[in-house]
Model the fold of this input.
Amino acid sequence: MKSPRSYSRIFLLLVIVLAIVFCVNISLGSVGIPLSEILSVLTGGEASKSSWQYIVLDYRLPKALTTVLVGSGLAISGLLMQTLFRNPLAGPFVLGLSSGASLGVAILILGAGIFGTALGSLLTSPWSLVIASALGSFLVLLAVLAVTLRVKDTMAILIIGLMFGSVTAAVVAVLSYFSNAEKLQQYVFWSFGSLGNQSWSGIAILATCTLLGIFLAFVSSKSLNALLLGENYARSLGVRLKRTTLVIIITTSVLAGAITAFAGPIAFIGLAVPHITRQWITSSDHRILIPAVLLVGSITMLICDAVAQLPYLEYTLPINAITSLIGAPVVIWLLVRKRKLLF
Amino acid sequence: MEGKKKHTVLEAVDLSIGYRSKRKETVVANGISFQCSKGELIGLVGANGIGKSTLLRTLCGMQAALGGTVSILDQSIASITPMALATHLSVVLTEAPSSKNLSVMEFVSLGRQPHTNWLGKLSSTDRETILRALEQTETLDLQQKKCYELSDGQMQRVAIARALAQDTPIIILDEPTTHLDLYHRAYILKLLKRLTKETQKTILFSTHEIDLAIQLSDTMIVMTPEAILVDEPCNLISQGHFNSLFPEDSIFFDSETGRFTVRE
Done:
């Protein structure tokens, strides 16, 4: 355990890195914009070219903010699930939450075409996507939880997550068979994951959900710490297990659901970031881990996004591919190096 | 049974324990009555599967009794809120903490949870209690270690330190001597004995170390298929109750030496 002082140094460092990565993320893209120009735009000044001003304020800044929200929210939901399921391999993607959210969105987008316009008119509101995908992930999480009550084996839980992935894929396949090309394209693009093209009102919704989730997570940190001992110990310490479990489940489904609705299913951030964070923060205390995971999640996501937008090129890669390409080797490396993942 | 003992802190009256499912009740044992008083060390012995853990879980409030009552400090356990119960009774379970990544200091500090605010901030009193618990279990020098680095014997001492940090009048331990060598089994039970004397806490533990428990416990609860007997160890020996603990085909209790011997 380190002293509070050395933790505050780590936090200061993380905040500085986040600020730098944030600016670098905005400066990179098909058109490179010098960092000095970005700083002046962000601090309320004018850029030397009006097109830069436009690109930064209307395109890259909202995208970078979305990236920060997505990264921090997914990482926090991963941390909560690792503690709740007492499984270092838990995460929103592995446990099928993202699949559940995808299913909700697939039914909304593809189903709207099949079941008529009543559903279709709902689609115009960005809230409906959020609700559909949060509901999807909530249902999957409930199912996973029901399994954990019966099966104590953590392997089984991961297999359930995988099975939900397959079921989602199957349902989506059936839905897409019956839907028109336009709707299908809309869904496929959504499923690639995208952080850009968010309206400010969309970002406001995403920010509301993410901040609410982070707030609930932080408020639960005492119970989360008790859960590190196991359910029976937690109960003997006066934790109301049912209520705590419910709060954690709602928190993770709001986080994973809202994020998946806006940015598509994004793999590995939720699983890998808590483990990467534990490389520096040796404490298991959630009061320290939650803010640290939040910062590392944002930084990681900004870096992944910077890579995905292929600086100075016209092309952009699907963000989901990049997080998997970076996240999967990190998990393998941690496993090989430490022999086992601790949480 | 005779009238109420002085300073009774934990009491079971005509307790019936077991499992209740939708269709039926499975009674593991019934008619259990005993009283534990302040500063007493109570050993619970019985063969595998006789229901020791079920009894302990019922006494801790982790599962409901099928009949009868458990009272803690003259209050029925069913009417105590989980938070209040956590300030009356702490447990040491056979399971290790789920997260082995906890440091010993963090693990023991979690014992203070019932006494801290919503964020779990430790006051100076909390810190003092934690350090005293580490001192009493001789684990002060382990405090920076991670739980995965500890040996079984160290882990058990740290688990007891966590219960001590919770600072409750009653501590219940489920088989604190499993996985330990003879030296550490004796060490742990002597530690419990010392703690009851030093802190006036009531400590109830289950164990398979019958001879050690006979030497150290103030009272023993002996669970046999026929009956549940509660008395001082010397009385239980003189009445020959330990012989009914196990089927007598391969071992028998030698009341001269106070231990079990293999039948030739």
User: Anything to note?
Assistant: Chain B touches chain A at residues 60, 62, 82-87, 89-91, 93, 95, 97-103, 105-107, 110-111, 113-114, 116, 118-120, 144, 146, 148, 166 (CB under 8 Å). The mean pLDDT of chain B is 92.
